[in-house]
Amino acid sequence: MTRDKFVMYVLQRYWRWARGLTLGAQGLVIDADNRVLLVRHTYRPGWHFPGGGVEKNETALTALERELSEEAGIVIAGTPELFSIYANFRYFPNDHVAFFVVRSWRQPIIPAPNNEIADHGFFPRDRLPQSTNRAVIARLAEVFDNAPPDALW
Asked: 3-145 belongs to which CATH class?
């Protein structure tokens, strides 16, 4: 495990212990060709929606805006749709995810890979990367195919 991965691991465990409840914000960013934005982190396997934790004195929407900008250079241009709030108990006790659909946006810069994000890109739904996280696949079915929402992320 690299130093950065170890630090992130320790910080995540501390946050889960120190806070009674945690909230994350993730976004499904859809481009004009109906492709979806996914990111690959340096500290966990697979491809995921961009997003991250809501910080103290920050709204879920503000956290989403910050995370999209940091991870993929995305600037929200319209009002995102709050699709649902999910319990993320499979991975962290007392963690929740506010999931937004972002259809109006721009990307003034395309950030280079860094210590947190190894890669990012837009993918057609029928050609997602092989290691796409199962929660991403479930959320895509909910948004695009009207699959019944699952309470768990």
From this structure: alpha beta
